[in-house]
Amino acid sequence: MKKLLNAADSVVEDALKGMAAAHPTLRIRDQVVYRADGPRQGKVGLVSGGGSGHEPLHAGFVGYGMLDAACPGEIFTSPVPDQIIEATKAVDGGAGVLHIVKNYTGDVLNFEMAAELAEDVEVASVLVDDDVAVQDSLYTAGRRGTGATLFVEKIAGALAEEGAPLADVAAVAREVDERSRSFGIALTSCTTPHAGKPTFDLPETDVELGIGIHGEPGRARVPMAPARELAATAMDAVHGDLPLRGDLLVMVNGMGGTPLMELYVVFAEVAAYVEGKGARVSRSLVGNYVTSLDMQGFSVTVCRLDDTLTRLWDAPVDTPGLRW
Amino acid sequence: MKKLLNAADSVVEDALKGMAAAHPTLRIRDQVVYRADGPRQGKVGLVSGGGSGHEPLHAGFVGYGMLDAACPGEIFTSPVPDQIIEATKAVDGGAGVLHIVKNYTGDVLNFEMAAELAEDVEVASVLVDDDVAVQDSLYTAGRRGTGATLFVEKIAGALAEEGAPLADVAAVAREVDERSRSFGIALTSCTTPHAGKPTFDLPETDVELGIGIHGEPGRARVPMAPARELAATAMDAVHGDLPLRGDLLVMVNGMGGTPLMELYVVFAEVAAYVEGKGARVSRSLVGNYVTSLDMQGFSVTVCRLDDTLTRLWDAPVDTPGLRW
């Protein structure tokens, strides 16, 4: 294993130093990433977080129109309650704070504990569980939270920026989760810096269907196939769970080690699939957004839009990872 | 080798279909990527291009404030003169066209031929040759063009958007090239779809210093080292050729298969190095911009800014790969 790092133990801290140096719009303190211009009085604060190794999620989505703070844990490890409490108190502008939590047992427990212990701050919480691949998994009771996290953070962030109250921001966040589904396929395993070898063995001839973002097992292991077939497999799983119709927000997301060119090849197939079902790709994203270290592969996330969600998706955003 | 594609022969065409589906601001015709809203009368047109496999370069930089058209060749293969002629004629708004050409023999020849054959269009040309690693290389007489291509496209694109004449746009493009230097380090080889196996052998213990963006050999092969040392090696090469001073634009660029987290680790070291030389990181980019398929590794590109270049760098841009 070759990785660009100084030591496995310092990789999260060292990467955060790089983020701070690269992005003057961020302020980083005690392993929490904040908007440098926050908190804003009267605005609902948005806090998310989770294990590191999924960059740009979450710290790369801190900024105008999205998150107020992100709490990165160690690699694939939940942030500790102290980080979340600190972030929650710091971003409160008097209008309360929304916790956006991916559905993994450790994250859920630590965010719950932090919500209880962040006295004097009104906290609402939304659980993201969009991955249709497995019902329960290695680190989850219920479905895993993956790509839809970005959609929730963007759309709830836009509504918070408009000055909406906490209940409304939480409601739109839940609505986005309910309208979103994801499915991922791995071509290779990820390798964590500490382990130094692939998390799982995957023969050169096979792919893992329904992979999790920590290398958790999916539904099945099948022979490698052309992009068209892999895209159809992922989309069949999504469509089987929430039929595609109307205007869709579609993300083809790279797992970290896959070139952009290949993601565009997949996106072309996904777009053709959507059209074949009589639905429409109304908005889209193609790139590395919710990654799993150096894993090769992709995931697709689909959200059924309505006029309000489209308007909030289109609203200006200014973060290191998403900007328009 | 596992890659997300339908067939090695159709990968460029299929990826362009995906780009067209994902980005309504682009129009793709005969393997040329155009701004859908061009040409603009009275504006200098900017055309670049080169082999595919470096995405988002170049097609991902077509849009407001950057390129008017990009001509993607097959993987690591120059675009043909017909593509370039077609693009040159199509983007001419009466103020002439600037060709931005990376210094590789095939690209240079084909752009030269196209400039001659694009009758009735005034064409100026700028050669990008920022890579300090080697003097001549496998595909080059003189230095290779790498990361500075993005700087040239962005800054010249901004000046063209302001309505400057061709001579001025060409002059600023040349100035950016003269003020920029790059150096890359590979942890792994890339694998082209047609070959299906790594372009070169690199032992698990070694890295290639001064790698080219097609896997061309660099200066030396040395044992893998911590990020701090690799960053210093790259920066020593840059600083040795063009001493760091004043305000710098610094890009830490991933080669395609390297996670963003690792690029931030490298950026932290590069920023510390710059500070140690008494210079300042005034503007920065961290991410996958000028890639080499699935290669793992990074390159660093530095440009010495002045007030004009800073203003043009900061000017609004709206492309799939760069947007602010």
Automatic annotation (TrEMBL), chains A, B:
SUPFAM superfamilies: DAK1/DegV-like (SSF82549). It is an enzyme of class 2 (transferase). Keywords: Kinase, Transferase. GO terms for molecular function: glycerone kinase activity; phosphoenolpyruvate-glycerone phosphotransferase activity. Pfam families: Dak1. Residues 7-324 form the DhaK domain. GO terms for biological process: glycerol catabolic process. GO terms for cellular component: cytosol. It comes from the Bacteria. Its EC number is 2.7.1.121. PANTHER family: TRIOKINASE/FMN CYCLASE (PTHR28629), TRIOKINASE_FMN CYCLASE (PTHR28629:SF4). This is Dihydroxyacetone kinase subunit DhaK. It comes from Nonomuraea mesophila. The gene is dhaK.
